[in-house]
Amino acid sequence: MFTSLIITTFATAVLGHMQLNYPPPFNATNNPHTTGPGDPLLQYPFLCCGRNLVYNPCKGYLSMLDTPEGASVATWAAGSTQNFSISGTQGTLGGTHYGGSCQVGFSVDKGKTFQVATSWEGNCPHRTNGISPDGQVFPFTVPADLPTGDAVFAWTWFNREQEFNMNCAAVTITGGTGGAAAVPAPASAPLGAPGNDSAPAAAATPSPASASTGATPVYTTEVILVTPRSNPVRGLFNNILPPVPIPVVERQASPPVSYSQRPVLLIADVNNGCETPKTTAEVKYPNPGPDVVPGDGAYPLALPSGSC
Description:
Order of helices and strands: HEEEEEEEEEHEEEEEEEEE
Shape: globular
Oligomer: single chain
Protein backbone atom coordinates (compact mmCIF):
# COMPACT_ATOMS: atom_id res chain seq x y z
CA MET A 1 0.00 0.00 0.00
CA PHE A 2 2.86 2.33 0.80
CA THR A 3 4.35 1.72 -2.66
CA SER A 4 0.99 2.42 -4.28
CA LEU A 5 0.73 5.69 -2.37
CA ILE A 6 4.12 6.82 -3.64
CA ILE A 7 3.24 5.98 -7.24
CA THR A 8 -0.11 7.74 -6.98
CA THR A 9 1.45 10.83 -5.45
CA PHE A 10 4.12 10.99 -8.17
CA ALA A 11 1.56 10.59 -10.94
CA THR A 12 -0.56 13.38 -9.49
CA ALA A 13 2.42 15.68 -9.17
CA VAL A 14 3.54 15.38 -12.79
CA LEU A 15 0.18 15.52 -14.51
CA GLY A 16 -0.93 18.76 -16.05
CA HIS A 17 1.38 20.41 -18.55
CA MET A 18 1.24 21.89 -22.03
CA GLN A 19 2.79 21.10 -25.41
CA LEU A 20 2.95 22.56 -28.88
CA ASN A 21 -0.18 21.64 -30.81
CA TYR A 22 0.26 23.54 -34.10
CA PRO A 23 2.46 23.24 -35.96
CA PRO A 24 2.47 19.58 -34.84
CA PRO A 25 5.84 18.77 -33.27
CA PHE A 26 8.17 15.91 -34.04
CA ASN A 27 6.74 12.51 -33.01
CA ALA A 28 3.45 14.01 -31.82
CA THR A 29 0.24 12.03 -32.09
CA ASN A 30 -1.24 14.77 -34.32
CA ASN A 31 1.79 14.94 -36.63
CA PRO A 32 0.77 13.42 -40.01
CA HIS A 33 4.28 12.03 -40.47
CA THR A 34 4.40 10.12 -37.17
CA THR A 35 4.39 6.41 -37.97
CA GLY A 36 4.15 4.98 -34.46
CA PRO A 37 1.95 5.81 -31.47
CA GLY A 38 3.66 9.13 -30.87
CA ASP A 39 5.35 10.45 -27.76
CA PRO A 40 2.85 10.81 -24.88
CA LEU A 41 5.34 12.82 -22.82
CA LEU A 42 5.91 15.79 -25.10
CA GLN A 43 3.93 17.91 -22.67
CA TYR A 44 6.20 17.13 -19.73
CA PRO A 45 9.16 19.38 -18.91
CA PHE A 46 12.78 18.32 -18.81
CA LEU A 47 13.99 16.63 -15.61
CA CYS A 48 10.53 15.15 -15.27
CA CYS A 49 8.73 11.87 -15.47
CA GLY A 50 11.64 9.47 -15.74
CA ARG A 51 13.04 10.73 -19.04
CA ASN A 52 14.80 13.75 -20.55
CA LEU A 53 17.12 13.81 -17.54
CA VAL A 54 19.63 15.76 -19.60
CA TYR A 55 18.55 18.72 -21.71
CA ASN A 56 18.39 17.77 -25.35
CA PRO A 57 17.02 20.34 -27.83
CA CYS A 58 13.59 19.45 -29.20
CA LYS A 59 13.31 16.47 -26.83
CA GLY A 60 15.96 14.67 -28.86
CA TYR A 61 13.91 14.54 -32.06
CA LEU A 62 16.22 16.61 -34.24
CA SER A 63 17.49 13.24 -35.41
CA MET A 64 14.25 12.97 -37.40
CA LEU A 65 15.30 15.77 -39.74
CA ASP A 66 15.91 14.56 -43.30
CA THR A 67 13.73 11.51 -42.67
CA PRO A 68 10.07 10.96 -43.66
CA GLU A 69 8.98 11.36 -40.02
CA GLY A 70 10.72 14.72 -39.84
CA ALA A 71 9.09 16.20 -42.93
CA SER A 72 7.70 19.74 -42.92
CA VAL A 73 4.24 20.25 -41.40
CA ALA A 74 3.69 23.92 -42.32
CA THR A 75 4.71 26.42 -45.00
CA TRP A 76 5.13 30.03 -43.90
CA ALA A 77 6.17 33.11 -45.85
CA ALA A 78 9.02 35.14 -44.39
CA GLY A 79 7.64 38.36 -42.90
CA SER A 80 4.11 36.97 -42.57
CA THR A 81 2.02 36.77 -39.42
CA GLN A 82 1.30 33.20 -38.38
CA ASN A 83 -0.21 31.49 -35.36
CA PHE A 84 0.92 28.66 -33.13
CA SER A 85 -1.26 26.89 -30.61
CA ILE A 86 -0.60 24.82 -27.50
CA SER A 87 -2.69 22.25 -25.66
CA GLY A 88 -2.42 20.08 -22.59
CA THR A 89 -3.89 17.82 -19.97
CA GLN A 90 -5.43 18.55 -16.62
CA GLY A 91 -3.63 17.94 -13.33
CA THR A 92 -3.50 19.14 -9.76
CA LEU A 93 -1.84 22.40 -10.83
CA GLY A 94 -3.93 22.76 -13.96
CA GLY A 95 -2.54 22.19 -17.43
CA THR A 96 -1.55 25.81 -17.90
CA HIS A 97 0.08 26.16 -14.47
CA TYR A 98 -1.80 29.45 -14.52
CA GLY A 99 0.57 31.08 -16.96
CA GLY A 100 4.30 31.50 -17.38
CA SER A 101 6.51 32.95 -20.10
CA CYS A 102 7.12 31.59 -23.60
CA GLN A 103 9.38 32.14 -26.59
CA VAL A 104 9.24 30.97 -30.18
CA GLY A 105 12.09 30.97 -32.62
CA PHE A 106 13.72 29.28 -35.56
CA SER A 107 16.81 27.29 -36.41
CA VAL A 108 18.18 27.32 -39.93
CA ASP A 109 21.18 25.10 -39.11
CA LYS A 110 19.32 21.89 -38.22
CA GLY A 111 18.98 22.76 -34.54
CA LYS A 112 22.50 23.89 -33.71
CA THR A 113 21.22 27.34 -32.79
CA PHE A 114 17.73 28.73 -32.19
CA GLN A 115 17.11 32.46 -32.46
CA VAL A 116 14.13 34.34 -31.09
CA ALA A 117 11.15 35.41 -33.16
CA THR A 118 8.80 36.54 -30.34
CA SER A 119 8.83 36.50 -26.52
CA TRP A 120 5.75 36.47 -24.27
CA GLU A 121 6.60 37.79 -20.81
CA GLY A 122 3.76 36.50 -18.64
CA ASN A 123 0.35 34.98 -19.31
CA CYS A 124 1.70 32.29 -21.63
CA PRO A 125 -0.21 30.00 -21.71
CA HIS A 126 -3.32 32.17 -21.35
CA ARG A 127 -4.24 31.71 -17.69
CA THR A 128 -7.96 31.16 -17.90
CA ASN A 129 -8.53 29.92 -21.45
CA GLY A 130 -8.36 26.22 -20.64
CA ILE A 131 -6.22 23.49 -22.14
CA SER A 132 -7.86 23.21 -25.56
CA PRO A 133 -5.85 24.65 -28.46
CA ASP A 134 -8.88 26.77 -29.35
CA GLY A 135 -8.15 28.98 -26.35
CA GLN A 136 -4.37 28.90 -26.63
CA VAL A 137 -3.62 30.55 -29.97
CA PHE A 138 -0.71 33.01 -30.26
CA PRO A 139 0.07 35.20 -33.31
CA PHE A 140 3.67 36.04 -34.16
CA THR A 141 5.67 37.42 -37.05
CA VAL A 142 8.04 35.20 -39.03
CA PRO A 143 11.34 37.12 -39.37
CA ALA A 144 11.39 38.72 -42.81
CA ASP A 145 14.95 37.70 -43.63
CA LEU A 146 14.76 34.02 -42.73
CA PRO A 147 16.37 32.07 -45.56
CA THR A 148 14.03 30.31 -47.94
CA GLY A 149 13.94 26.57 -47.33
CA ASP A 150 13.74 24.16 -44.42
CA ALA A 151 13.74 25.44 -40.84
CA VAL A 152 12.96 24.16 -37.35
CA PHE A 153 10.34 26.06 -35.37
CA ALA A 154 10.72 25.89 -31.58
CA TRP A 155 8.37 26.74 -28.72
CA THR A 156 9.69 27.03 -25.16
CA TRP A 157 7.84 27.57 -21.88
CA PHE A 158 8.85 28.40 -18.33
CA ASN A 159 6.09 27.97 -15.75
CA ARG A 160 6.33 29.27 -12.19
CA GLU A 161 7.54 25.92 -10.86
CA GLN A 162 11.02 26.28 -12.40
CA GLU A 163 10.05 23.83 -15.12
CA PHE A 164 11.13 24.15 -18.75
CA ASN A 165 9.58 22.55 -21.81
CA MET A 166 10.56 22.69 -25.48
CA ASN A 167 8.82 21.25 -28.54
CA CYS A 168 9.87 21.65 -32.16
CA ALA A 169 8.38 21.22 -35.62
CA ALA A 170 9.78 21.11 -39.13
CA VAL A 171 8.53 23.99 -41.30
CA THR A 172 9.20 25.42 -44.76
CA ILE A 173 9.99 29.11 -45.24
CA THR A 174 9.17 30.84 -48.52
CA GLY A 175 10.07 34.30 -49.83
CA GLY A 176 13.00 34.91 -47.50
CA THR A 177 15.06 37.97 -48.33
CA GLY A 178 18.31 36.80 -46.82
CA GLY A 179 19.19 40.44 -46.08
CA ALA A 180 18.20 43.05 -43.53
CA ALA A 181 14.83 42.44 -41.94
CA ALA A 182 11.92 44.71 -42.70
CA VAL A 183 9.90 46.23 -39.87
CA PRO A 184 7.82 43.35 -38.44
CA ALA A 185 4.14 43.43 -39.17
CA PRO A 186 1.70 44.28 -36.35
CA ALA A 187 0.98 41.38 -34.03
CA SER A 188 -2.69 40.94 -34.82
CA ALA A 189 -3.87 38.32 -37.25
CA PRO A 190 -6.73 35.98 -38.03
CA LEU A 191 -6.69 32.82 -36.00
CA GLY A 192 -5.70 30.58 -38.87
CA ALA A 193 -4.11 27.56 -37.25
CA PRO A 194 -5.67 24.21 -38.18
CA GLY A 195 -8.14 23.03 -35.57
CA ASN A 196 -9.04 26.57 -34.57
CA ASP A 197 -12.55 27.62 -35.46
CA SER A 198 -12.70 30.82 -33.42
CA ALA A 199 -13.72 34.14 -34.89
CA PRO A 200 -10.78 35.97 -36.50
CA ALA A 201 -9.49 39.22 -35.12
CA ALA A 202 -9.62 42.41 -37.12
CA ALA A 203 -6.38 43.74 -38.52
CA ALA A 204 -4.38 46.00 -36.25
CA THR A 205 -4.15 49.68 -37.05
CA PRO A 206 -1.91 52.45 -35.70
CA SER A 207 -3.41 54.62 -33.01
CA PRO A 208 -4.66 58.01 -34.30
CA ALA A 209 -2.33 59.94 -32.00
CA SER A 210 0.81 58.30 -33.32
CA ALA A 211 -0.37 58.70 -36.91
CA SER A 212 -0.85 62.42 -36.46
CA THR A 213 2.39 63.11 -34.59
CA GLY A 214 4.66 60.94 -36.67
CA ALA A 215 5.80 59.05 -33.56
CA THR A 216 6.43 55.32 -33.62
CA PRO A 217 2.96 53.83 -34.05
CA VAL A 218 1.46 51.69 -31.30
CA TYR A 219 -0.45 48.75 -32.70
CA THR A 220 -3.41 47.50 -30.73
CA THR A 221 -4.88 44.07 -31.29
CA GLU A 222 -8.64 43.63 -31.11
CA VAL A 223 -10.29 41.57 -28.39
CA ILE A 224 -10.76 38.02 -29.66
CA LEU A 225 -13.55 35.84 -28.33
CA VAL A 226 -12.27 32.31 -27.95
CA THR A 227 -14.61 29.41 -27.27
CA PRO A 228 -12.77 26.39 -25.84
CA ARG A 229 -14.03 22.98 -26.92
CA SER A 230 -15.98 21.03 -24.33
CA ASN A 231 -13.70 19.15 -21.96
CA PRO A 232 -15.16 17.02 -19.16
CA VAL A 233 -12.11 17.33 -16.91
CA ARG A 234 -12.12 20.09 -14.33
CA GLY A 235 -9.14 21.30 -12.34
CA LEU A 236 -7.93 23.94 -9.97
CA PHE A 237 -7.30 26.63 -12.58
CA ASN A 238 -8.92 25.35 -15.75
CA ASN A 239 -12.62 24.99 -15.11
CA ILE A 240 -14.80 24.79 -18.19
CA LEU A 241 -15.44 28.41 -19.06
CA PRO A 242 -17.78 30.44 -21.22
CA PRO A 243 -16.16 32.34 -24.11
CA VAL A 244 -13.20 34.23 -22.70
CA PRO A 245 -11.81 37.40 -24.32
CA ILE A 246 -8.07 37.43 -24.87
CA PRO A 247 -6.79 40.61 -23.20
CA VAL A 248 -6.04 43.61 -25.39
CA VAL A 249 -2.30 43.77 -25.99
CA GLU A 250 -0.50 46.91 -27.08
CA ARG A 251 2.83 46.55 -28.78
CA GLN A 252 5.15 49.02 -30.39
CA ALA A 253 6.34 48.34 -33.91
CA SER A 254 9.82 46.88 -33.59
CA PRO A 255 12.86 48.38 -35.30
CA PRO A 256 14.44 46.34 -38.09
CA VAL A 257 16.63 43.56 -36.66
CA SER A 258 18.41 41.05 -38.83
CA TYR A 259 17.57 37.45 -37.98
CA SER A 260 21.26 36.68 -37.63
CA GLN A 261 21.52 39.41 -34.96
CA ARG A 262 18.63 38.16 -32.86
CA PRO A 263 19.35 36.57 -29.46
CA VAL A 264 19.18 32.84 -28.89
CA LEU A 265 16.31 31.24 -26.98
CA LEU A 266 16.73 31.23 -23.21
CA ILE A 267 17.53 27.78 -21.80
CA ALA A 268 17.21 27.42 -18.02
CA ASP A 269 16.08 25.07 -15.24
CA VAL A 270 17.92 22.10 -16.76
CA ASN A 271 20.87 21.95 -14.34
CA ASN A 272 22.80 24.37 -16.55
CA GLY A 273 23.46 27.00 -13.89
CA CYS A 274 20.57 29.24 -14.92
CA GLU A 275 17.36 29.26 -12.89
CA THR A 276 14.07 31.10 -13.36
CA PRO A 277 12.06 32.59 -10.48
CA LYS A 278 9.80 30.17 -8.64
CA THR A 279 6.17 30.71 -7.62
CA THR A 280 6.23 34.46 -7.04
CA ALA A 281 7.04 35.80 -10.53
CA GLU A 282 7.02 35.05 -14.23
CA VAL A 283 10.13 35.17 -16.39
CA LYS A 284 11.43 38.44 -17.79
CA TYR A 285 13.81 37.47 -20.56
CA PRO A 286 17.28 39.03 -20.34
CA ASN A 287 17.45 39.06 -24.16
CA PRO A 288 13.88 38.88 -25.46
CA GLY A 289 14.55 40.05 -28.99
CA PRO A 290 12.79 42.89 -30.83
CA ASP A 291 9.24 41.49 -30.65
CA VAL A 292 7.95 41.25 -27.06
CA VAL A 293 4.34 40.67 -25.97
CA PRO A 294 3.65 41.92 -22.42
CA GLY A 295 1.65 39.84 -19.97
CA ASP A 296 -1.44 40.83 -18.02
CA GLY A 297 0.36 41.95 -14.87
CA ALA A 298 -1.12 39.23 -12.67
CA TYR A 299 2.39 38.40 -11.46
CA PRO A 300 5.55 40.51 -11.39
CA LEU A 301 8.32 39.74 -13.84
CA ALA A 302 11.79 38.69 -12.71
CA LEU A 303 15.01 37.91 -14.53
CA PRO A 304 16.56 34.45 -14.22
CA SER A 305 19.56 34.07 -11.96
CA GLY A 306 22.92 32.38 -12.35
CA SER A 307 24.94 31.87 -15.52
CA CYS A 308 22.32 32.62 -18.16
